[in-house]
Amino acid sequence: MKTQAALSAVGKDQPGIVAALAKMFFELGCNLEESSMTRLKGDFAVLLLISLPDNLNLESLKTSMAALAKQWELAFTLRELPVGGDRSRVEPNAQNHTLVVYGIDHPGIVYKVTQAAADLKVNITDLRTRVTEGKSGAIYSLIMELEIPGGNAADAFREKLEILKKDLKVEVTLTPVEAEEL
Amino acid sequence: MAVKEVLTFPHPLLKQKIAGAPSTGPLVEQALADLTDTMTAHPGCVGIAAPQIGLPLRVLVVDVSWSKRPSENHGLLRMVDPVILEASQWKMSREGCLSFPNLLANVKRAQKIVVEFGNGSGGKDRISALGFEAVAIQHEIDHLEGILFLDKIRSSKDLFERPAPATQPL
Predict the structure, then answer these.
(1) Among B143, B151, B148, which residue's Cα sits nearest to residue B100?
(2) In whole angstroms, what is the distance from residue A61 CA to residue A79 CA?
(3) Which domains does chain B possess?
(4) Cβ–Cβ gap A128/B156 under 8 Å
(5) What residues of B are in the A interface, CB distance below 8 Å?
(6) What confidence tens digit (pLDDT) does each residue in B121-144 have?
(7) Predicted-complex ipTM score
(8) Domains in chain A and their CATH numbers?
(9) What is the C-alpha separation between B64 and B29, in angstroms, rounded?
(10) Is B140 a residue of the active site?
(11) pTM over 0.80, yes/no
(12) Which residue among B10, B15, B159 places its CB closest to the CB of A143?
């Protein structure tokens, strides 16, 4: 069974970070699997899963990563994943939705919306937020991809969102994701 | 010239569905003139709807003829109470909006539409619009319904901070 590891790294954004990481993994024989990398204001954040070749252990990879992190001024964590680790459990009748929430920035938007999701066992699979300047104050945008369990959870979530829309003074759009068969 | 201030989110008029209104008369004519002047005064702007300048009217203007993206177009379009009759060839493209000066989003729109609209003089016109012109018309018609482009995002990866210089705002 191949060893798998999860790397998280963040540091000042500059050209070449991804190439330096990819070069290191390539030269060590690692396979870069699922990943998510993005710029957050002036920083660049990396989350990725890698599988290690048989001739490389986690300590050796950490040593190489520490050298690269020093050169590129990255803070990182690297941990081994349990063997047989698999995707998170998905409700069989879950339906994918996209939720868009935006309004004037104030504390509590993410907390209250995500708590409403958690209360109904709605699973968040991706979440992005943006804060941009507006004439009347900063505008906070929250976009989430969700798996909503079957039954009446979607309707119950919509009802909760309508209440939050008024309480938080935000705009809310919840849309089912419909795959197109081609 | 009457260049009007462009309202930005969260002005309540931007989220309001505009009710039917007169299709001719001095109010409509003035709105069309002010919208044209305001659009022209914003470099890169290819369309603007009445609610964006504070007018609760179902009126908009679009002109993609001097767009950075060359595409088939009808020049300046002045539309009163436009209605989309046909829409096809759906495709994602990146949009900006004067009412959200710092955001861009990927939005799915029809690349081919047939739209009917009052011409401001009492008559009705019907055109077939393609590509970027079709996208711009749909974006502006959404403003008359209180729908903003952020409401049309369908993936968490489809919202972006606008880089400088500006991408063409609609």
Answers:
(1) B148
(2) 10
(3) 12-161 (3.90.45.10)
(4) yes
(5) 8-11, 15, 100-103, 148, 150-151, 153-159, 161-162
(6) 889 999 999 999 999 999 999 999
(7) 0.86
(8) 3-80 (3.30.70.260), 95-176 (3.30.70.260)
(9) 21
(10) yes
(11) yes
(12) B159
